[in-house]
């Protein structure tokens, strides 16, 4: 374990030009920015926040995303997975936070977030021992589920954003598919650094094209200030209610389940074996990030799967890029004017890039299944079929479990969680704790046994 940890620190070093590293960091920020901003917008509007309060909520959220990312990527002996991961708001926390806020007030939201973060920190070691539940057939299925459940999000954005008046308009479709085609061509004909920042170039080109057609709103840039002060407990001291705390603990468990799949996927991408101790440090960092979110009145944080696709596509697996991205988020959090610049990217342009990014997550899962799982065994095919089917089905039909009590629904109405639980349970039924290895590995083991 210690050897793995020491070897992994070399991922910080490299001969890449600082400007290239900076550009790659911007690319990661843009990949997760929409998701990070969407949560405070939804929650703030639902709880009738004023414009000033909403501005603070977005700014502190971005700053906390940066700090949380640095905690996770640090990778010391106490906390941090040490992989090129980005942290952002947990989407599954939106509905519970709104419900808590409407029932017990905003202060109860942050009391529950702090309590749930402490819970994750305290029980991180136990969570880390669950690595046996994630053999290749489960990990590959989970990663595939993550990708396929995110594709609808990308297509909604490509059309202009769900609920937008001009959703699916010819201009939005041209911008979205134009960016996607541009990224495809860049990956086909460009080489080296240009290929690695193809998504960033595509977003810039798409925004420029949108500006020509008057599709870029400069209002947020003009209205934003140059500096934003940050202070703990900006919305008041936290209050603690048992039901609210239990709800957010369930949300935290869901986040841990999702993060496990992301950690395992990134481990495969960067060729690092993820141990139970690695997972425990990752969970501990995530718990600290959740506590941080509660103290600064932002949100619970979790590992963002959309950046996995970017790591895979850019082929840049070093952590220095993520450190730059985390630092940029912190700067953006202090300077609303800079944050407003990223808001200039039209939703349809961002959606076009997301199709490629989320598609890479799917292909990463398929590669894991094809290379490490014996697909000639019906049991493995059955695990994959049911888990991916459940994950995609719950995402497409979100009202399937609407009759279940709200406190329990968080465990079943999220496609990633539903599919992951299905994969874990079915794998235990059919394979026990061994998992389904590939035919090549199985044959090698048989040859070794015969030779012995």
From TrEMBL:
Broad class of where this protein is predominantly found: membrane
Membrane topology: Multi-pass membrane protein
Localization: Cell membrane
Domain of life: Bacteria
Key words of the record: Cell membrane, Membrane, Transmembrane, Transmembrane helix, Transport
GO cellular component: plasma membrane
Membrane-traversing stretches: 21-42, 54-74, 81-102, 108-127, 134-155, 167-185, 197-216, 245-267, 321-342, 348-369, 381-398, 410-430
Cited Pfam families: Xan_ur_permease (PF00860)
One of the record's GO molecular function terms: xanthine transmembrane transporter activity
NCBIfam families named in the record: ncs2, NCS2_1, pbuX
PANTHER family, A to Z: PURINE PERMEASE C1399.01C-RELATED, URIC ACID TRANSPORTER UACT
Family indicated by similarity: Belongs to the nucleobase:cation symporter-2 (NCS2) (TC 2.A.40) family.
Protein name in UniProt: Xanthine permease
